[in-house]
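Quiz preparation item.
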């Protein structure tokens, strides 16, 4: 019996996939396809069971081809005619939807399809489920309005039993995505934009998660609240039930069942039964878990769970689920510093920022294997944490983080600007839904309310509410920038960084974003222009070395500052952002994975030999380059920006000192001190150029603050302010014309006013 029970529900939970139907075929991935496009069914895409923590055997997917049309955004009735076909659940803008057009914020998108209820479902209520629809949606069945929903990231359902008819039924869904971030009543939209660029991306309109039907008894299990209690070796379980409303004028309203119902619960550990006991609905059931096998990223152990609603000796409704025994808390290390604890022990969290975007499906991964792939790759990179950034994923993504063993910091997608009272209430409603629909996943350990100061409001009150709704997890009041001194984390953003504040008595210190190492991979890019942080590196060797340097800093901060976690930006490229460890299509891994994985565990392996450099004049980042320098204004330098004698090849700098770059203080890698603040430094260096000089060149500069670079006395480039890494400054046409084969003079002036200071310069060919 136990063996049969395991194979009936725990084994499917550990796979939770269905084979593609006969006739499945690939769907075009558009301008940047992925390897999974060939596996996308044109008739039944994403056929996997959508809700892994509450599984019923009987269900029907409504994913597949639907009709679609556009109307005015204020239309309340379906159009008379439809414009074409769209593949659900891929969003309107995506290539996989087979539409792939620009966002339509001034229009409402309509969907239509037919469905038939299996005869075996007779006598049961039929629920219509939506994983997510962006953003304002309405549902009609057989011409009758069923209900509406606002919110682009949370699931919802309607009881459609009373409007069904024998044979074919018609389902119509409307969706409007205003994509507004610049007004007080803007919606929660995360990083979507009508005009993407920089750190913002393509909009996502309409259905973008699975749509499905499910038969249930009139009184059925509507939800589970699963809370592990590691210290007391107990699982706390509450089974929630609902019954249909009696008001015939409100088709889908539901009311909480007032009388309790008997519940039978069975817990399995593999093939072994841990416990079987009975309780009642809407009342916490305490289930002893002797010698609990604790869940962690290195040992993601899951227990099986079957919950049955009983009528006497008869099972009226049952669902299969799973859970893990794990605890998240703050604790003190041996030095008395506040740290993040997992299962009552400090474990350094090294993670990656994960935006969850795809070039073919935008918000929607092409297949379940693709959804799982990012998590598998994160583990291969040596990460034990993903920060799910500005997006909420389908339930199956969290299933895979639970099963594969990946800690998750879950963001609330952002609204922007100064929110009015109405938008604040909608934000709070969506935030609570996000927590309540995902709080059973053991992989989620932190709720992050705000990113930087985007739409930040009422922080102290929302932290208190979040703690009330979920007292078992940690709360991050704001990742970066505007910290209000509440919650459990003091989160710092620094690029390239990393940097961390020191822990506080009741808050751990973390670096919620750092890095952003940028590298172009032609043929695997969304567009030719790139956005990143600092210099665009030329090859994977440079990315590997830079990543290793960043992780050395991170581990140093973990020791000296007491930091508990570091989140690298980012796992993959996203549209114009080219700072991923993988390209946007997941086809190319940029750095050496073995070296990165070792660095993430604090082991820093030797780098392989550096590939040949394309630098015309190398900087001192790798090999020290010697310059003549002075910190006293040269006598001939009498104006703020002269065609200076000191910058000319014939100037006598024999009295200047010599030393290797970089010059400065407060930066890693400085080789020659330059400490005057405020103060100036002048540099000269003669270099020999080859017979063939590229036509277009950039000055490569690490500068803090203002810098001027001359070649053979001609101004080549200048910049104000400071940067956190080497940046390209286009060389002027006049300076390029002044270069010639053989000896050439480079002269540099840098001025510093406050804070750290640094200067180093080279010349490279323009990409």
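Solution:
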């Amino acid at each position: 019996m136990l063996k049969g029970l395991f194979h009936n529900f725990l084994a499917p939970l550990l796979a939770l996939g269905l084979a593609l139907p006969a006739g499945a075929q690939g769907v075009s991935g558009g301008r940047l396809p992925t390897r999974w496009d060939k596996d996308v069914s044109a008739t039944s895409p994403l056929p996997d069971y959508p809700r892994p923590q509450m599984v019923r055997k009987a269900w029907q997917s409504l994913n597949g081809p639907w009709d679609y049309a556009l109307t005015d955004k204020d239309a309340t009735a379906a159009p008379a005619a439809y414009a074409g076909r769209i593949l659900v659940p891929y969003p309107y803008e995506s290539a996989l939807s087979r539409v792939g057009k620009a966002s339509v914020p001034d229009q409402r998108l309509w969907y239509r399809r037919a469905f038939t209820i299996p005869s075996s479902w007779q006598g049961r209520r039929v629920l219509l489920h939506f994983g997510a629809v962006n953003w304002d949606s309405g549902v009609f069945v057989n011409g009758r309005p069923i209900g509406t929903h606002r919110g682009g990231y949370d699931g919802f359902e309607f009881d459609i039993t009373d409007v069904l008819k024998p044979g074919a039924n018609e389902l119509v869904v409307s969706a409007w995505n205003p994509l507004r971030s610049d007004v007080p009543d803007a919606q929660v939209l995360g990083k979507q934009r009508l005009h993407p660029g920089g750190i913002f991306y393509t909009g996502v309109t309409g259905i973008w998660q699975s749509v499905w039907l499910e038969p249930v008894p009139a009184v059925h299990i509507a939800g589970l609240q699963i809370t592990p209690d590691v210290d007391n070796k107990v699982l706390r379980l509450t089974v929630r039930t609902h019954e249909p409303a009696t008001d015939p004028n409100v088709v889908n309203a539901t009311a909480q069942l007032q009388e309790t119902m008997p519940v039978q619960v069975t817990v399995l550990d593999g093939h072994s039964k841990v416990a079987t006991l009975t309780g009642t609905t809407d009342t916490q059931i305490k289930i002893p878990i002797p010698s609990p096998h604790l869940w962690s990223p290195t040992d993601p152990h899951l227990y099986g769970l079957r919950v049955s609603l009983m009528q006497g000796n008869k099972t009226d409704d049952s669902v299969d689920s799973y859970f893990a025994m794990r605890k998240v808390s703050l604790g003190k290390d041996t030095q008395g510093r506040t740290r993040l604890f997992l299962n009552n022990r400090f474990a350094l969290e090294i993670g990656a920022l994960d935006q969850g975007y795809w070039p073919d499906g935008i918000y929607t991964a092409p297949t379940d294997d693709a959804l799982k792939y990012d998590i598998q790759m994160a583990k291969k990179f040596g990460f034990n944490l993903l920060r799910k950034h500005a997006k909420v994923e389908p339930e199956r993504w969290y299933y895979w983080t639970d099963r594969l063993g990946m800690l998750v910091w879950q963001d609330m997608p952002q609204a922007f600007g100064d929110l009015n009272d109405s938008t604040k209430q909608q934000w709070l409603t969506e935030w609570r839904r996000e927590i309540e629909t995902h709080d059973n996943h053991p992989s989620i350990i932190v709720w992050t309310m705000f990113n930087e100061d985007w739409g930040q409001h009422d922080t102290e009150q929302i932290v208190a509410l979040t703690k009330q709704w979920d007292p078992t997890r940690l709360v991050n009041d704001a990742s970066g920038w505007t910290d209000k001194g509440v919650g459990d984390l003091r989160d710092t953003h620094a690029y390239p960084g990393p940097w961390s504040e020191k822990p506080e008595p009741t808050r751990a210190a973390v670096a919620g974003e750092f890095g952003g190492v940028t590298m172009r991979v032609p043929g695997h890019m969304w567009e030719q222009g790139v956005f990143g942080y600092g210099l665009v590196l030329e090859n994977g060797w440079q990315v590997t070395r830079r990543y290793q340097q960043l992780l050395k800093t991170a581990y140093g901060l973990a020791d000296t500052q007491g930091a508990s976690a570091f989140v690298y930006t980012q796992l993959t490229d996203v549209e114009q952002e080219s700072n991923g460890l993988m390209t946007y299509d997941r086809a190319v891994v940029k750095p050496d994975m073995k070296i990165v994985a070792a660095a993430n565990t604090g082991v820093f392996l030797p780098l392989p030999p550096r590939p040949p450099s394309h630098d015309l004049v190398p900087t001192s980042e790798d090999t020290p380059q010697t310059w003549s320098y002075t910190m006293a204004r040269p006598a001939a330098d009498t104006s703020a920006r002269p065609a200076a004698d000191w910058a000319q090849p014939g100037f006598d700098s024999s009295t200047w000192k010599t030393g290797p770059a970089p010059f400065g203080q407060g930066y890693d890698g400085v080789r020659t001190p330059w400490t005057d603040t405020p103060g100036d430094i002048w540099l000269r260096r003669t270099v020999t150029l080859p017979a063939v000089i590229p036509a277009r060149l950039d000055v490569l500069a690490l500068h803090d603050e203002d810098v001027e670079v001359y070649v053979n006395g001609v101004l080549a480039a200048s910049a104000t302010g400071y940067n956190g890494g080497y940046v390209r400054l286009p060389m002027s046409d006049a300076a390029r014309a002044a270069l010639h084969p053989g000896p050439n003079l480079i002269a540099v002036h840098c001025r510093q006013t406050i804070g750290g200071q640094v200067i180093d310069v080279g010349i490279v060919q323009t990409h």
